[in-house]
């Protein structure tokens, strides 16, 4: 297992002349790859209570946000220019409520059998889910804050398992 400090490599999205390029992965072997990302949205008491009680007028916030997160993960290559189009074999989004901090923590787990990793898909899934919560609740709180978006862990590929040690104790299900 590698830690986040051990994974630094040269940047691969530039050719020898410094031009941006998509990395050619055609020679790489297919492997099972997984990634989990996390992020939070801080909300006021009214939003927290409404989301928890399921009384937001636009609907079931967390169910809609989970679906949006999955949709976002599936469309990552349309948003991030150098990402490969990946046929995800699995994607799951879930939430943890943190009442004392009035935060909603979002997790996104992505899976693929392929030549390149699914970290960007997991990060995009979290971002999209959190933006959906903001959109559905903005009538109650326009000062919500989205943040702390990071990769928790990834497996597969030449780097094997990588764990973000800064946050390795936070991931749950």
Task: Walk me through this protein's architecture.
There is one protein chain. The chain is α+β, with helices and mostly antiparallel strands and 173 residues long. The chain contains four helices and six strands; from the N terminus they run E-E-H-H-H-E-E-H-E-E. The protein has helices at residues 45-53, 61-74, 76-79, 119-137; strands spanning 2-3, 31-42, 90-98, 103-114, 145-155, 162-163. It has a six-stranded mixed sheet with strand order 1-6-5-2-4-3, covered by helices on one side. Helix 2 runs antiparallel to helix 4 (119-137).
Largest sheet: 6 strands, mixed
The structure class reads alpha+beta
Please report the distance between the alpha carbons of the first and last residues. 21 Å
General form: elongated
Mean of all residue-level pLDDT scores: 89
User: Could you list the spans in which at least 5 consecutive residues all have pLDDT below 50?
Assistant: none
> What level of helicity do the residues show?
25-40%
What percent of residues are in strands? 25-35%
Strand order of the largest sheet: 1-6-5-2-4-3
Total number of helices: 4
One letter per element, helices H and strands E, the order comes to EEHHHEEHEE
Q: Determine Rg (CA atoms, Å).
A: 17 Å
DSSP, total strands? 6
């Amino acid at each position: 297992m590698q830690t986040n400090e051990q994974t630094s490599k040269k940047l691969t999205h530039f050719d020898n002349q410094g031009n941006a390029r998509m990395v050619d992965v055609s020679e790489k072997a297919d492997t099972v790859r997984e990634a989990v990302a996390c992020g939070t949205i801080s909300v006021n008491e009214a939003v927290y209570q409404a989301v928890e009680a399921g009384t937001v007028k636009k609907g079931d916030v967390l169910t809609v946000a989970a679906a949006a997160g999955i949709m976002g993960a599936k469309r990552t290559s349309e948003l991030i220019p150098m990402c490969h189009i990946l046929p995800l074999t699995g994607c799951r989004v879930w939430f943890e409520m943190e009442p004392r901090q009035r935060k909603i923590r979002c997790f996104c787990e992505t899976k693929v059998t392929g030549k390149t990793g699914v970290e960007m898909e997991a990060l995009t899934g979290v971002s999209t889910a959190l933006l959906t919560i903001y959109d559905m609740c903005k009538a109650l709180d326009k000062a919500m804050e989205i943040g702390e978006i990071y990769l928790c862990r990834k497996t597969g590929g030449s780097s094997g398992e990588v764990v973000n040690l800064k946050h390795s104790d936070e991931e749950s299900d």
